[in-house]
Amino acid sequence: MTDASRPRHVLVTGSRRGIGRAVCNRLLADGWSVTGLDLDAGELTGGGMDPGLDSAGLRSLAVDLTDPAALASTLDAAIAAVGPVDALVHAAGILRTAPLGALEAEAGRLLWAVHVDAAVRLADRLLPAMAAAGHGRMVLIGSRVAAGMPGRSQYAACKAAVVALARSWAAEVVADGVTVNVVSPAATRTGMLADPGRARTAPRVPPIGRLIEPQEVASLVAYLLSPAADAITGQDLQICGGASLAR
Question: Is residue 223 flagged as an active site residue?
Answer without folding.
Answer: no
